[in-house]
Amino acid sequence: MSNMPDNLRYSKSHEWAKQLPDGSIEIGITDHAQDLMGDMVYVELPEVGAQLSAGKECAVVESVKAASDVYAPISGEVVAVNTELADSPELANQAPYEAGWMFRVKPDNSADIEALLDVAAYREVIAAEA
Amino acid sequence: MAHKTPLYDKHIEHGGKIVDFAGWEMPIHYGSQIEEHHQVRRDAGMFDVSHMTVVDLKGAQVGDFLKLLLANNVDKLGTEGKALYSCMLNAKGGVIDDLIVYYMNDEFFRVVVNAATRDKDMAWIETTAREMGGVTVTERADLAMIAVQGPKAREKAFTALGDGIRVVAEPLKPFTAASVGELFVARTGYTGEDGFEIMLPGKAAAFTWQMLFDAGVAPCGLGARDTLRLEAGMNLYGTDMDETTTPLESGLGWTVAWEPEARNFIGRSALEAQRDAGLERKFVGLVLDGKGVLRGHQQVTFDGLGEGETTSGTFSPTLGRAIALARVPVGVKIGDSCQVDIRGRSVDAHIVKYPFVRKGKSCID
Fold first, then answer.
1. How many Cα atoms are found within 13 Å in the side-chain-facing hemisphere of B220?
2. DSSP, residue by residue, A66-116
3. Into how many domains does chain A fold?
4. Residue B71's pLDDT band (boundaries 50, 70, 90)?
5. B170 and B312 in one domain?
6. Total number of domains in chain B
7. Which residue range is the domain that position B180 belongs to?
8. How many angstroms separate the most distant Cα atoms in chain B?
9. pLDDT number for residue A1
10. Which of A63, A109, B179, B264 has its CB surrounded by the most CB atoms within 10 Å?
């Protein structure tokens, strides 16, 4: 069974979102997603300053198997990206919720994160896929 | 209902992630495809390839039959256990499948064809055999097959399987095989490394796999098999070539035996017409210079020379960059630069001579 921390919010398309103390939202892909994809070999991230729209593709992860879009869970401006992933895409496999984080956004509306799935709802999404 | 090989329980036991492959439940990897890839390049790994179709062809006419059926010429064989790679063509010169044929004796050859093409291959072989007469076609679904590959594969296989195997299999030259009791051991493979492909009774597969495992041969999935074969510049049927392409435009011209001219194999006249008219496309290797991953069927653009397409591509674990096989306009040369359309992004690449990797070493730059 995939690891799903209780303190995160999730999307149906397998991104996670974490509220940081400075009000920005850290985003990555879930353990379930990385497990489905297999070894990551390339991650294409948005530019800092880019404006993201919730539900729209904003990054690409490529594994040995396939390329997959990453969708912005919430709307906002990109304030940081994880540059470590350029040389070490395997971080998204090894530590999807920590060192494998992908980008941080300053949300247009700070309440938006509350609309995302909690861990119980995300667990149901995965169960429905199986 | 999906098929399972006799090694299915072993795959589960060793943590294999199971996927559907051409109707077979096969392991794509056992944890990390990239680690399995490196294991084969640096040490020894094993693959369950029991889903592949083994067909025994017997009878007084079998040599003549294969000289009709195959674009390569089985007259190159003639000693027991010798193996030959060939395409099987339709009348238009399109590739029905690629295969390995083993000479057992003048009235007995064994061929191994792809799993994904099993039904059409069997239909084609049986129809052609019936028209000729004097050949019996027997599918050997009772056989399993384990490929043991890597610089230490042979030594570890001898350790695992004992001196009886060593005595017979150690002297084998590349592309030859020998029977040892119920085992048929061939020094062949699909990785660009040394090793064996071992055919054996299905009921013996699980304990043989376990003995190899105990000798330090790591289970490897179909994922690593694909990245290894691509680095080794070996074609994959269905993506690099199919019935709409000929061997001549698929990098397989070397497998077409034009001599003797009197040997009128199926597809010959179409290939001759294509050769005489001049080829429009050729097959090359491609290395990505920019960032990203090459995949099959991405468009490749050359300044002033037109367009081609990748036929299969991947991230090469050995080289740490993306590589592909590609079908391109005939005027393209080694070293030429090009642009590949990767999901709407134009990324620089250049043409290389393949294989990309052989025996653990880079062959490019």
1. 32
2. -EEEEE-SS-EEEEEE-THHHH-TTHHHH-TTTTT--EEEEESSTTGGGGS
3. 1
4. very high
5. no
6. 2
7. 8-52+142-231
8. 61
9. 63
10. A63
Asked if B295 and B356 sit in the same domain, the reply is yes
pLDDT score of B241: 98
The whole-angstrom distance between residue B23's C-alpha and the CA centroid of its chain comes to 19
Res B198 pLDDT > 70: yes
Sort strands B45-48 and B218-219 into parallel, antiparallel or unpaired.
parallel
| Domain carrying residue A81 | 9-123
**B180 CA: distance to closest CA in chain A (Å):** 38
What's the DSSP call for residue B115?
Answer: S
Q: Which residues of B touch A87 (CB under 8 A)?
A: none
For the record, the structure tokens of B105 come out as: 């004796």
Interface confidence, given as ipTM, is 0.85
Among B33, B288, B345, B347, the residue to mutate for chain A (most A Cβ within 10 A): B33
Region B357-364: mean pLDDT is 92
Sign of CA dihedral A32, A36, A39, A43: negative
Q: Is residue A3 part of a domain?
A: no
Say whether residue B343 is in contact with chain A using an 8 A CB cutoff: yes
